[in-house]
Write a sequence for this structure.
């Protein structure tokens, strides 16, 4: 289903009824119904179904980040999309068509064996045919059943059966090294492999980034960083947000506080601000007793500049080191104080590391 804009009003229609040029509205939690271009607003979009990358991307109107793909999911905010693909001609439709129309190619060994069998068959048929005049010249008895039996014995039909046996033996050898082969071509290719490269996201990992470490800024108490990070994530329903709360509980003994605190106003993640957090009002209702934010380094840096603060060079170095090690850094601040960095990482599936080493 899709929310189509008709004369400024949202009308629920089937996604299959959308045509090129239609305008549809997508909010957090919606699946984008078709390929299109963002013409209004900005949002974070989960494109893991298409690209396999767990990190959400920002899609906004204008510029080179406006294109969206049908089947992806909006995580935050609201966007208006102009459909750019006709029904049955979306990216997913073309990909499915390519898969359905694909034909298995023969392996090099199969091609070579086919040529060998054809050549030997032609030679043996030629031998049998030329054998008839020789037998007649020597006045030896010639009968059709004998020539037929000779032809059957000479044609190399059994060689074709060897390929299956070779393939089974190769697959068995791969299984002994914890590798599952789905075709003979894969078995042949594995013999030439020197380096194995894997698409880590969703292939060898769980597909969601998880909090693995809290790194406090110089001079900041570690407990204060963990406490602020957990408070800023209590209302965050994303896997990353939940993992921050869980890590604070399991590693540092901090239990989750009451989310519905009347003095707490949670700030949801936005594609525009690229931050989330929480504001705590004082007892008399004035703002704000505590202002906690977490987000990308450049977004937090801009937030601090607005408040008259700055991001310390040491924290920038921590962010750079986390990124170099393949992690995703989130900076945590309270007011103008930079508390530290949360390290998010893709978690390798259990048992996979030992299986690859074996």
């Amino acid at each position: 289903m899709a929310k189509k804009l008709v004369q400024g009003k949202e009308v629920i229609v089937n996604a299959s009824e959308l045509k090129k040029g239609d305008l549809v509205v997508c909010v957090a939690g919606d699946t984008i119904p078709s390929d299109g271009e963002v013409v209004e607003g900005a949002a974070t979009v989960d494109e893991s179904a298409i690209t396999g990358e767990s990190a959400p991307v920002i899609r906004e109107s204008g510029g080179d980040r406006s294109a969206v793909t049908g089947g992806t999911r909006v995580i935050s905010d609201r966007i208006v999309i102009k459909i750019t693909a006709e029904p049955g001609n979306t990216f997913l439709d073309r990909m499915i068509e390519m898969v359905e129309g694909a034909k298995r190619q023969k392996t090099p060994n199969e091609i070579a064996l086919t040529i060998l069998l054809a050549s030997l068959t032609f030679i043996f048929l030629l031998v049998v045919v030329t054998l008839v005049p020789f037998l007649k010249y020597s006045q030896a008895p010639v009968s059709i059943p004998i020539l037929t039996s000779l032809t059957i014995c000479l044609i190399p039909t059994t060689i074709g059966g060897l390929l299956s046996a070779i393939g089974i033996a190769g697959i068995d050898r791969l299984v002994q090294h914890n590798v599952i082969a789905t075709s003979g071509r894969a078995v042949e290719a594995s013999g030439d492999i020197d380096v194995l490269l894997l698409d880590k996201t969703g292939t060898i990992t769980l597909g969601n980034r998880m909090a693995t470490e809290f790194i406090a800024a110089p001079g900041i108490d570690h407990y204060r960083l963990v406490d602020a990070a957990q408070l800023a994530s209590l209302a965050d329903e994303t896997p990353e947000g939940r993992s921050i709360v869980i890590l604070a509980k399991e590693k540092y003994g901090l239990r989750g506080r009451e989310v519905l605190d009347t003095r707490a106003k949670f700030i949801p993640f936005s594609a525009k601000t690229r931050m989330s957090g929480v504001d705590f009002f004082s007892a008399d209702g004035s703002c704000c007793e505590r202002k906690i934010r977490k987000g990308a380094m450049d977004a937090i840096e801009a937030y601090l500049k607005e408040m008259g603060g700055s991001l310390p060079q040491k924290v920038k170095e921590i962010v750079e080191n986390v990124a170099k090690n393949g992690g995703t850094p989130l900076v945590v601040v309270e007011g103008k104080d930079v508390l530290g960095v949360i390290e998010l990482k893709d978690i390798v599936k259990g048992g996979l590391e030992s299986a690859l080493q074996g």
Remarks:
- The mean pLDDT is 81.
- The longest strand covers residues 205-216.
- The radius of gyration is 32 Å.
- Residues 108-191 form one domain.
